[in-house]
Amino acid sequence: MQNPPHDPGSALAMRAHYRQSESRTARLRLLVETGQALTQLAPNAMRERVLVRACAFLAMDHGLIQEWDADGNASTTARQGSQDRLDGLAAIADRRLRTPCWLELPGSALPSVLQVPLRGGDGSAFAVLVLGNSVSLRAPDHEDSESLQLLATLLAAHLENDRLLTTLMARDRTLSDLVNRLLHAQEDERKRVAYDLHDGLAQTLAGLHQRLQGFAGRCPTLPGTLDADLQAILTLAQHSVGEGRQLIAGLRPTVLDDFGLFKALDKEADRLREAGVSVQWSTGYDGRLPSQVEIALFRIGQEAINNVLKHAQASQVQLVLALHDGQASLRVDDNGNGFALDQRLDTQDAKHLGMATMRERASLLGGQLNCVSALHCGTQLHARVPAFLDGTPR
């Protein structure tokens, strides 16, 4: 059997096809390996990795990444090659590009230049990858340009995600700062109003009650209806004095300033006892803490007790105040109705707004608040915050 005649044209075609296959494999390897690597790198390292890979892919010896901020100010965020030649690349970077652009600049230090835009989610370019070579090269073919554009798109997606994350973190810090200022202003205003009421209206009501008592004691015996009216007036005056004291205590309990967190919370627990709820106390610390810590934990405990009275229909509440490993913690557990934690907040009543406020109070001090609850299974609330914000107890 004779061998088929040798066909040089067929051999050349097979060799060309093989080289094209190798080229495609190299492109795919570039994209896959670089894409995998970018997820593990910080933004600056991402830029450097893409720039190095792009220069190696097209065998070009200079390159940079030029980026523009929201105000249009340009900056070079990655570079490779000699600085004097890179200055020329930075000068021709064009953020208006939509697709890769090949430039031939005869007689310049870098006669062959390729620009590849990095576009954001809105389609506009916020950066450009600029590659240059010190000797003239042929323009890359369409597949090479597409590969570099895909590589630039991968980098652009990661950089834009990092920008968005940075923006969100900055907004979150700003929001937390505003909430912190709001809570401080609220506490200051409550304190001012409480002292104004104590020194003004509360004193007036107390004086009125005392004068009425004195008048009733000196007054001769009155007919039945008039005596009943006088007693009703005395009862109303006494009730007004009590209401005023409760209002002042709710705004800013003096017991918190004078005797500390444990006494103030125990005073709040009296509202549970008056409602017929059994209160069990467990405390491993009854000393003083920094003012911010005492106020935060007191307001958290106060809101938790409000929720028990308004919603829980509990028969028993356990309060635990402890200090351990530099963390002050407060637990408020009840055996009431409970609620479903996975329900949407906007479908619930003010209880969830109170829960959000409690969490924010703990978070602003670098702590956290955990809530465990289920329908008909009670609620367990646990707040933890750093005990000594200045490093020492008050």
UniProtKB/TrEMBL annotation:
SMART domains: HATPase_c (SM00387). Gene3D superfamilies: 1.20.5.1930, 3.30.450.40, Histidine kinase-like ATPase, C-terminal domain. Residues 292-389 form the Histidine kinase/HSP90-like ATPase domain. Keywords: Kinase, Transferase, Two-component regulatory system. Pfam families: HATPase_c, HisKA_3. Coiled coil: none annotated. One of its GO terms (molecular function) is protein dimerization activity. It comes from the Bacteria. GO terms for cellular component: membrane. This is Histidine kinase. The lineage of its organism: Bacteria, Pseudomonadati, Pseudomonadota, Gammaproteobacteria, Pseudomonadales.
